[in-house]
Design brief:
Radius of gyration: 22 Å
Number of domains: 2
CATH superfamily of the largest domain: Type I PLP-dependent aspartate aminotransferase-like (Major domain)
Structural class: alpha/beta
Helix content: 25-40%
Bound molecules: pyridoxal-5'-phosphate
Length: 454
């Protein structure tokens, strides 16, 4: 297709800046920070309009788990396009939605038996919060009206999801509009006391949570957590024993457990779902991001038949879950998700990810001794480098200095898409990355860090 407009980075960026408002961006930054028009992508690579390329080290906000335009996903979508585009999911059903539900139930932790679709991660969190609240109400426990979240957690940007998030940068401005959940201290291993192991931190935090539940369980619907890694809050990681203990506490105090695996699901942490490492089944499992391999927006909330049964009654009872999104269970998105699950079923993805994770660990190890690296941590194919003014004091760089932004800028100048979270430089590469590309990725990050802390 010919276009009357020149297709160069500068021309496309100028047109963009005249009409678009970008997510999570102070648009003023683009007076100095180049805006990059991407005109194509394949595997780990993104291509710009001037022939430049960028290794997508963050899987485009953690969605493209198998990289870009994976041939299996592309073929599945093309076939679906020739069959069924979309139909509302109230009163209607279709193969992609029901096949995907069956497939998800097959691979999810045991006991999850029902799938409710939505179309993005925040919406999935809203669904889980509302379902939990409504479940208790349907059972006559109307006093259960609040939620518990962990410090440092992130569950999305819509008002409900933002309410149970604890990232000041996103939350503070809107605080007057939000629900007020109880915050329990995160089991984040970075906050270990001297001599404490990650497991010790988890044990201490479980004891503190028990105290909260002893006071508050009567009025609490659910506790929501990001299993193993609190991602947007700075890739903070914790011991799997916390999940095991959390499940036991939720059972003991009759509080639901909502596992938000929107970021960590689908092989990212070494198992298909992070919950497996604590050997637990949550009451609600929220999935999105990697669900469609980055092809289309979709999310799903899995729950058990006990929850489902509490809503099953005569219409007049008012017990139905009357929640919907227009694109709920879109057939194209469901087909992309099915194709993504097929890759897990037919290829040794998890075994290969373990090798890639070991490679990533080896490449990163020399950074551990860097004077400005306060912590180097990794869970599966998520690794993070916590920058600080001094590794011993862990005194963070003031946020106003925007050291992470310097790493971002350096990366783009060296064919690398790294998008640090404040002072945390992290890696969440697509699973199709090669060991050589991992070495390059870490080398660019190391040089970018050197430039940023200078
Ligand atoms: C990204 C994310 C969300 C929100 O998903 P969106 O699709 O961006 O709304 C929720 N929870 C976690 C853990 C996430 O990483």
């Amino acid at each position: 297709m010919s276009s009357p407009y020149p297709r160069t980075n500068a021309a496309l960026a100028a047109r963009d800046l005249a009409v678009l408002w970008h997510p999570c961006t102070q648009m003023h930054d683009h007076e100095t920070l180049p805006l990059l028009p991407v005109v194509g992508a394949e595997g780990v690579w993104l291509y710009d309009a001037d022939g430049g390329r960028y290794l997508d080290a963050v899987s485009s906000w953690w969605t493209n788990v198998f990289g870009h335009r994976h041939p299996h996903l592309v073929a599945a979508l093309k076939q679906q396009l020739d069959t069924l585009d979309h139909v509302m999911l109230a009163g209607f059903t279709h193969e992609p939605a029901l096949e995907l539900a069956e497939a998800l139930i097959r691979v999810a932790p045991p006991g999850l038996a029902r799938v409710f679709y939505a179309d993005n991660g925040s919406s999935a969190v809203e669904v889980a919060l509302k379902m939990s609240f409504h479940y208790w109400r349907n059972l006559g426990h109307g006093s259960k009206q609040q939620f518990i979240a962990l410090s440092g957690s992130y569950h999305g940007e819509t008002l409900g999801a933002l309410s149970v998030s604890d990232v000041a940068l996103y939350r503070e401005t809107y605080a007057p509009l939000l629900l007020k959940p109880l915050l329990a201290p995160s089991p984040d291993a970075y906050e270990a006391e001297p001599g404490e192991s990650p497991r010790d931190v988890a044990t201490r935090r479980l004891a503190q949570l028990r105290a909260v539940l002893q006071r508050e369980a009567e009025t609490t619907c659910a506790i929501i957590v990001e299993p193993l890694v609190q991602c947007a809050g700075g890739m903070r990681m914790y011991d799997a024993s916390y999940l095991t203990g959390l499940r036991a506490l939720c059972d003991e105090f009759h509080v639901h457990l909502i596992a938000d695996e929107i970021a960590v699901g689908f092989g990212r942490t070494g198992t298909l779902f992070a919950c497996e490492q604590g050997n637990i089944t949550p009451d609600f499992l929220c999935l999105s991001k990697g669900l469609t391999g980055g092809m289309l927006p979709l999310s799903a909330v899995l729950t058990n038949n006990t929850v489902y049964a509490a809503f099953y009654a005569d219409y007049a009872s008012g017990k139905a879950f009357l929640h919907s999104h227009s694109y709920t269970g879109n057939p194209l998105a469901c087909r992309a998700a099915l194709a993504t699950l097929e890759l897990f079923a037919t290829e040794p993805v998890l075994a290969r990810n373990r090798e890639l994770a070991a490679c990533l660990a080896r490449e990163l190890e020399p950074l551990r001794e860097h004077t400005n690296v306060a912590d180097l941590r990794q869970t599966g194919l998520i690794a993070a480098v916590e920058l600080a003014q001094d590794r011993r004091t862990r005194q963070p760089f003031p946020t106003s200095e925007r050291r992470g932004l310097r790493v971002y800028r350096y990366g783009l100048q060296h064919e690398m898409l790294l998008r640090p979270l404040g002072n945390v430089v992290y890696f969440m590469p697509p699973y199709v990355i090669t060991p050589e590309q991992i070495a390059t990725m870490v080398r660019v990050a190391r040089d970018g860090i050197a430039a940023a802390v200078a």
